[in-house]
Design goal:
The chain is an alpha/beta fold. 34% of the residues lie in helices and 13% in strands. Strands 1-2-5-8-9-10-11-14 form an 8-stranded parallel beta barrel, surrounded by 5 helices. Helix 11 packs parallel to helix 12. 47% of the residues are buried.
Length: 504
Amino acid sequence: MENSIETSALSTAGKAAASLKTTVDGPQKNGETSGWTPSSWTTKPIKQDVVYDDRKAVAKALAKLERSPPIVTPTEICKLKKSLEDVALGKAFLLQGGDCAELFDYCEASMIESKIKLLLQMSLVLSYGGNKPVVRIARMAGQFAKPRSSPTEQHNGKTIHAFRGDNINGYDPDERTPDPSRLVSAYFHSAATSNYIRASLASGIADLHSPLDWGLGHVKDTAIKAKYERIIDSITGSLRFMRTVGADRASSGLETVDLYTSHEGLLLEYEQSLTRRLKTPATQRTGQVATKTADLPERESTSSDDGKEWYNTSAHFIWIGDRTRALDGAHIEYFRGIANPIGVKVGPSMAPDELVRLLNILNPHLETGKITLITRYGEHKIASLLPAHIRAVQRSPHHGTVIWQCDPMHGNTFSTAQGIKTRNFSSILSELSSALSIHRENDSFLGGVHLELTGEAVTECVGGSEGLKDVDLSTNYTSYCDPRLNEKQALELAFLVAESLRGR
């Protein structure tokens, strides 16, 4: 069936993207610079780009993607937007986590289930400790591509393409040439993963009546087990009382939860191909908008009287990386036109006034919860950088509309003497603890955490209660990119955050 798809079926927007992705001559002047379209990013300078050798193969892949059904729906996206509005208002807490970079091989039942269960366990701990609902977003079902500091590397004396993620090229040195057919493979692996997540939730994997069924997997630490079991005992007692008075099964919220998907929106030709103009659910058209609108630039609206908006249907939530957030760049141009909630990585190179200008572009209508600011400084830099960013937003019309989320992973990466990339649990905890206290000191609050983690018993980050050291990393280091917290370390971090949220 796929072989019957002709490149002539590709839309005008798709052709613009295909042209750009097979040339190194820069942005194409296609006459779409005056207003936003899903392909207007092709008129802007782009970073972390991928250039393919075969234009016909690119066009064929994009044509297939354009014809494929959405992976997520506007109803789901709008439900997440409403939940994130609550996070921005301090009524809920955001937990976002998953692999640094997914592999196609991770699209397997047990690996998907282990991540779902870990996020459920962490959210249970955070909700119980913080006494507020937890919004769960997984770095799953599309988190394949990764930005790289260099597009090439040396291998056996030869220069080859760097591994950019399974949706671009293979990890094997013989598979490093960017292959556009991997874009289509990424779609089907994402769709299969999303389908299994939905099926698992519908089948009761998140039923609060049996949280012990989630298991503690590879966690052997008796202290963590005891803490977790105390929470379970308390919840079980409450449910037993509700069952006695007949209020138990009346609440469907006890039997399932929402789990949303996310990834970095790095490959714009892929994101564009899954961007659709769809009707916004009638019940979701009145989101909370801030009343102050002074000093914002005039931007054209991407919605119309027919109630339709442009939705990225590859995931519920996508974010802009620290390397691709140039104000005049292709990624900002694309992101400013979609209705999805979006994240922005905020690192040491972000000037406070630049942050405000970025918010003006991405959220001109001041939607509460539209933008999640994912700060990632490093434990030794956060104290000198975060306060200025908080104050800049507080002085702007965007005060009270953003979600502040801490990513304590990316600023704390280092290599051991043996050249193994790792992170220290104490540094991760230190940055997260600093974020909590700095927000309190600046009349703000931390709305969420963003973690790279896995439900597997990996040995990629040193430290934690199990005391992993540099020499232990080779025991089970499986990441092809950045190091992740294992199940025990992730749960330990959740307990520590919960205690802080409770004010201990």
